[in-house]
Design a protein that fits this description.
This protein has six helices and two strands. It is mostly helical.
Length: 169
């Protein structure tokens, strides 16, 4: 009786497994059929995608031959970076400064803490602006240049300093 049950179980198990494999293969081929149409139309014919592929498969070096025109081998001139946008102080504070000045990390005075900001404000706004832009190592802690966001415009950093000073007076 046990052998008959085992044989019946094995037959049903094989049948279920076969059906599941057929369903999986059907889904696979359906997905491939849809993907081919989608990939052809949207990805492979996209000029940006073609340019990216050409950049990746371009030779890493070129050989200059003496006595021939090698002007095509000249290094490309770097493009100047676009100037950073000037952002309001509160936006810069919430985006960059809050990480340290919100919790007082590394000796940073918390925004709105009048006692911690008073000696710094006494040195003058020009000094605060300079330290925020160029960075500063003081006895209380460390201020990285532009708060670690060197992509910010100087005026944006100045706006953030003015925002924190105004909140701490």
């Amino acid at each position: 009786m046990s052998a008959a049950h085992d044989k019946k179980f094995f037959n049903i198990f094989t049948l279920v497994l076969g059906v599941l494999i057929l369903i999986a293969l059907g889904i696979y081929f359906l997905a491939r059929n849809v993907a081919v149409d989608t990939q052809e139309a949207h990805v492979l014919q996209d000029p940006a995608m073609q340019a990216a592929v050409n950049d990746r498969i371009a030779p890493v070096a070129k050989v200059a031959v003496s006595g021939q025109d090698n002007s095509a081998l000249a290094a490309a001139k770097p493009q100047a970076a676009a100037p950073a946008a000037e952002l309001p102080g509160e936006e810069v504070y919430n985006m960059a400064c809050i990480a340290c000045h919100g919790a007082g990390v590394a000796g940073a005075p918390k925004n709105g803490d009048k006692a911690a900001w008073a000696p710094r404000i006494a040195k003058g706004l020009d000094t605060l602006h300079k330290h925020a832009i160029e960075g500063f190592q003081g006895q209380a802690g460390f201020m990285p240049p532009k708060g670690g966001r060197v992509d910010l415009a100087d005026k944006s950093v100045i706006n953030a300093v003015d925002f924190m000073v105004a909140a701490s007076k």
